[in-house]
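Figure-free illustration: sequence to structure, shown twice.
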Amino acid sequence: MLILITVVLLNVWAIPAENVLTPNINILEEINKIVDLEKRIKSMETEMERLKTEKEVPKVAFSASLLTTFGPQSVGPFHNGLHTLIYKHVFLNFGSNYDPNTGIFTAPVKGVYVFTVFSKAIGNHERAVTAGLFKNDQHIVSTHGHQADGFISSSNGVSLLLDEGDKMKVNLYPGQWIFDNGEHHHSTFSGHLLFAM
């Protein structure tokens, strides 16, 4: 209301003295202009608050490969159910939401996230490379490759809506194996927050 009174006074002072008492001044029109101005100011304040909130959204991104040591090595096979893979060589962990001790990523905020899994293995008649991306112990997508010899690679990716606290991990299926080389980093698990909700 103080803004309204100030603007009216400023408008009155800007009017030549001879026009003050003439019917050329439309007070209602001037008040409507002031009301419109107040609405625009309120809209700008709301937008500024929204932009401040957007700045507070955490930056979340991680990428890791299986091995921290140089040299080739296969992980698996395991025969007692699903085996959570622990990607120990961390390239990036913005927000520290990926745990290299457990292999689990925990979503810090509700939002849309993107995940990719790359798997490599040595060809073998008896086993393949089959690794699944899991959200809170629910299977989402898998990588799979099987051949008798040579190297095989498989990859997969997905965008998912996660709630705060949801957990993502990669499980190796029973009887399967996966290969990595600590120098070349063939098998990786990566993810990032695309946007918060």
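We now fold a second protein in the same way, so the two outputs can be compared directly.
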Amino acid sequence: MLIDLSNVLSEPHRSVDETVPCELKIFRNGLGEYPVTESSDVHVKINYMENGKLQIEGTCKLTVEIPCDRCLEPVATVFDLNISRITKGNVTDESEVESEDLDEANYIDGYTLDVDQLISSEILIGWPTKILCSEDCKGICNVCGQNLNQGTCNCEDTSLDPRMSVIRDVFKNFKEV
């Protein structure tokens, strides 16, 4: 969804306050594609500050299905986004606006704001480092790929490091019967 910014950029005391539908159905990043299963409308408020700067505030709640890091089962992950950005508007001379305090504006192109790109940027920032379907997820078998949460497999357990065989022998020798 695109929002027109020409009124805000041409008349500094005007602002945009809109609620638009979230049209993001698939979130894409360098790791893959993830379906967006639920999303609320996006409320966006844009104000002109000074020297071509725009203050963008917004809220949105959406659910993305991300595979569990251990067993690869899909996990519904909720993103409750509270957006607060200060960025440059359509400035012809890059030296007019100091870029230290401003965000990269890959979601502003000319006089339009791409709401879906803004939401994608916020999801990427809030992406969790580890996704688990449950705290006691057993993962998958390294040999056959069986989901160990759903049952066991008949594969030989070779997960022990061969360098630890000496310590394993010590424990076997001193094991109380």
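Summary for the second example: Residues 91-102 have pLDDT under 50 and may be disordered.
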